Amino acid sequence: MGNSYNRQRILILITFLFIPLGLLGLFTYYPAVRLLYLSFTDWDGISKTVNFLGLDNYKEVFTNPDLFGVFIHQIPYVLGGVLQNIVAILFAVILNSRIKGRNLFRVLLFVPYIMNGVAVAFMFQYVFDTNNGSLNALLGMAGLSSLQHSWLGDTSLVNFSLASVSFWRYMGYTMIIYLGALQSIPGDMYEAATIDGANRFQSLWYLTLPSLTQVIQLNMFLTLSGALAVFDLPFVLTKGGPVGSSETFLLKTTETAFTFNNYGLASAMSIVLLILTVVILLVQNVALKRRGDA
Amino acid sequence: MITNRKIDPVQWLKYVLLGIASLIVLFPPYVVVLNAFKGPDESSSPFALPASFLNFENFRIVIDKADILQAFGNTFLVIAVSLVGNIVFGTMVSYALARIAFKGKGLILGLFLFASIIPTITTQVVIFSLIQSLGVFNTLFAPILLFVGADVLQITIYLQFIRNIPEELDESAMIDGASLFRIYRSIIFPLLSPATVTLVILKTINIYNELYIPFLYMPKQKLVMVSTSIMRFASNNQAQWSYICATILIIMVPTVLLYLFLQRYIFAGVTNGAVKG
């Protein structure tokens, strides 16, 4: 019997893993390796022949301010993301306390995450529209006409407007992750803290936040890597405009490939983005480990 | 604990904050709902109430002009086929990883994990020519091929579940002479159904909301999906806010309803995948 099961085990391993690993290889690792290869060439997407350029594409990425420089446009997303985590922890703590209607609020704050992203984008186009938009109308009604702006048309505002949409959409999601982590902190730890005379803020600061470290790390990774890879919102709402002020690195990458047929340069940009994502992950891990050892 | 009858300012502050957050969440959809029912002669002020909430004229026009029915049909088909394959592959990988000891298990998990941090849009630069050479460009198979593969979130959730299924079940089935495939199909797969339900819901929402893959691989008019339908329609109809609002509503309602009825599973999936993943 043992023998026949050993044969079966090998058979199952091969048959059960073959297609899923094949798909993973074909649509993730083959493209990643080919990106790396193409990043050293001048491939235009059609030609059978390619010229080897060495590191020229990478030089171009880092020295051309139109390429690497667009990361400046993504700073508002980073700031919005950090704020989003702070607000999400706040609401997770609130919803983890004894409060009426907590399920209603939980459901409501999470709902933006469920909505179709393109529909959300157009919904906010209506919010931000200069002439007919609801935000300017609201400001007008509140007697704050001086605050009315062309939210998506002003080069210094557009990225903050877009980042706020991202905040609106993902705050509830981040909150739910924190809430899940909070609920796994045993209640008797709080009782013990209360008996020892800790007030609410002391138990928040010394008990709740330290237990959240790992989840904060995960969420910050999601937030930062998300901010590096911003795409959908500017792609739908502004197409990178006005005058390129809401271009993001990923938007540039797809344009470089699909509009200007410079697949070599686009590949180098993709690799740079991938490396930056990995660097964030490593830095966070190292930072957390060091704190754990201390 | 001592019950306190006087009003607790912290408690009060909590409700104020929750109230403000709720208003911010509801403000954009509220304005969309108001304007989706407005006729062409009605006030263009975003806060003016429509003459009637039973005026479905905009919806009728939009369903026709934005190819909404076609979009829903294609989206449903892509979701159904992708998910059947995805669930079969995901459970198979997880079963093999959880129940069979072999070298390279950690490597396989690592490969799935690392794949999840590669920003998906970056690899499209290469996948685009791959999809073309496979001959599936401008067919529904393009998104299906890209959605059908197993992913790390799914494998993590399944692995947690399988580890909670006692191995004695497998062993007693072996004593009865059941094949490993039969154990997978008749014991493991059915016992994974709570996780499968959660994953089906989460993935349905993800595919429904996906924008770039249908945009890139299915430019053909007939292959419109939900996300691309509203994009095409809006770019052809600048400024017709009442139409765009109607389209937004039609597209948002299905996932929101799904969420309201099945929230338990969605929350379980989101927290499980994140906290233990």
Largest sheet of chain B: none
Assign a percent range to the helix content of chain A: over 70%
Which stretches of chain B are poorly predicted, pLDDT < 50 over at least 5 residues?
Answer: none
Distance between the termini of chain A: 53 Å
Number of strands of chain B: 0
Distance between the termini of chain B: 37 Å
Order of SSEs of chain A: HHHHHHHHHHHHH
Mind telling me which CATH architecture of chain B this is?
Answer: Orthogonal Bundle
Shape of chain A: globular
Structural class of chain B: mainly alpha
Query: CATH first level of chain B: which class?
Result: Mainly Alpha
Regions of chain A with pLDDT < 50 over 5+ consecutive residues? none
Q: Determine the strand fraction of chain A and express it as a percent band.
A: under 5%
CATH topology name of chain B, in short, is MetI-like fold
**What is the number of helical segments of chain A per DSSP (H or I, 4+ residues)?**
13
Strand content of chain B: under 5%
General shape of chain B: globular
| Interface with most residues | A-B, 91 and 88 residues
Report the structural category of chain A.
mainly alpha
Domains of chain A (count) = 2
What does this entry look like structurally?
The complex is a heterodimer of chains A (294) and B (277). Chain A has 294 residues and is mainly α. Chain A has helices spanning 2-38, 56-63, 75-96, 102-114, 117-128, 134-141, 158-183, 187-195, 200-211, 213-228, 232-237, 249-259, 263-293. In chain A, helix 2 (56-63) crosses helix 13 (263-293). Chain A is globular. Chain B has 277 residues and is an all-alpha fold. Chain B has a single domain (60-276), classed as MetI-like fold. Chain B is 74% helix and 0% strand. The two termini of chain B are 37 Å apart. Chains A and B meet through helix 1, helix 3, helix 4, helix 5 and helix 6 of A and helix 1, helix 3, helix 4, helix 5 and helix 9 of B. Chain A: Belongs to the binding-protein-dependent transport system permease family.
